[in-house]
Amino acid sequence: MEPKSIHHRTVASAKPIVPVILSGGTGTRLWPMSRGLYPKQLLPLTGSQSLLKEALLGAWDPRRYSAPIVVCNEDHRFMVAEQLREIEIVPEAILVEPIARSTAAAIAAAAMLVSRREPDALLLVLPADHSVRDPAAFQAAVDRGVPGALQGMLVTFGVLPDRPETGFGYIRCRGPIDAAPSCLAVEQFVEKPDLARASAYVASGVYFWNSGRFLFRADAYLAELARLDPEIGSACQKAISGAQHDREFVRLDGDTFAGAPAKSIDCAVMERTDRAALIPVDMGWTDVGTWSTLWGIGEKDATDNVIVGDVVALETKGSYVRSESQLVAALGVKDLTIVATDDAVLVAPRERAQDVRYLVDRLRAIGRKEAHSHRTVYRPWGCFRSIDMGEGFQVKRITVKPGAKISLQKHAHRAEHWVVVQGRARVTRDDEIIDLRASESATIPLGAVHRLENTGNELLHLIEVQMGSYLGEDDIVRFQDSYGRT
Known about the structure:
Blueprint (H helix, E strand, L loop, with lengths): L16 E7 L27 H8 L10 E5 L3 H10 L6 E5 L4 H14 L6 E6 L2 E3 L2 H16 L3 E6 L10 E8 L2 E11 L4 H10 L2 E11 H11 L1 H12 L2 E3 L2 E3 L2 H4 L7 H6 L5 E6 L3 E3 L3 H7 L8 E3 L2 E4 L5 E4 L4 E4 L4 E5 L4 E5 L6 H10 L10 E4 L2 E9 L2 E8 L7 E3 L3 E9 L2 E5 L2 E5 L4 E4 L5 E5 L5 E9 L8 E4 L6
Parallel strand pairs: 1-2, 1-4, 2-3, 3-11, 6-12, 14-16, 15-17, 16-18
Antiparallel strand pairs: 4-9, 5-13, 6-9, 7-8, 7-9, 8-12, 10-11, 18-19, 20-21, 21-22, 22-29, 23-30, 24-27, 24-29, 25-26, 25-28
Helix pairs in contact: 3-6, 3-7, 6-7
């Protein structure tokens, strides 16, 4: 299949439309599935594809769009790249943030990157953690927004509300804009209201949910940012100028990017600009922020339960019950959220969905690794999974992708023993090269310089036994690395 990187033009615009996918969130309210090292946008929460893949595929139409730019966290860059490869989309760039500075800076950096080749290119900004059930309706809304965006308006997409929702922001509008009749003039951005105000907003007919999606020219956004919050633009310009280019990655300069104030695009620009315009759209949109949201959009059984995975529920009502591993059995409960992974279980009233983040804060405060990582940890070469551990030892299952290899490295506090379960391995151990097949093994003494490589055409699976006084992942010195981590 041909990689999906060919540039096209929309019928409505002679300018390229560049999707900018914001994939920098951590999703603490969706713990225990969402973790710091593997956040919600990388997970298949609403279907068989991850939220990131849904965002990319929903914005992928070669008749309309150029290759996308994905903005992500340093820790997630290889997983983002892998998910792009899995759906055969070749990005213009994966823009790597060394530190999270919120959406105003992330979008500015992407706009500056695009501006180097075409300052007035149109940017279509999409969060990676939203769900849209009617992509065709959104595509039609984008087409309606193009004329306004070409004139320099900062176009946002307002979702027609069908209920009073206290978890979303709102946008108040007045009538159409003369120069772009498809667009409504924006009067006010409103933060998440209480139930009474939300009900009044819906009844008024002039408020829309804030979808966090935007369409504008790169130069128009940068000009407004320079006028309204110049400190952000200045820091981003320096970060782009000092960026390192490594394959598809553009790694922003950390010292200068850290100087950008951490503000959302709404706070920095949209709430203050006189160029804001809104396209109304009914696209089945949901901000996938909490377990209660997933219950709301999920397919319910006869007693209003949403059941996902290996679950048996008896006399259970109005609950979201999900298992990612072992059997979960629920008896005689009502309006609960129950989510089980292989290393953690969440049980909470469904109405407390917004408060799960405080539980994650508590886990971090007491040093629980479950706040940050899963039992399976992903690396650019594959992944590893902790099977067992005790005083002075740890057992892992390691999976290496075909043709991939770990860095040339050594450890100061542990020795390792590798047993090949499936596939072919090449082991570098100091000056030795050892080729191993299934059931064969090699020992890496403490302090030995070593590397593991998959020389076959299938996944390499092996068991690693670590032995030593300290078994942390930071006990590593890299000498050579194929992924720029030395």
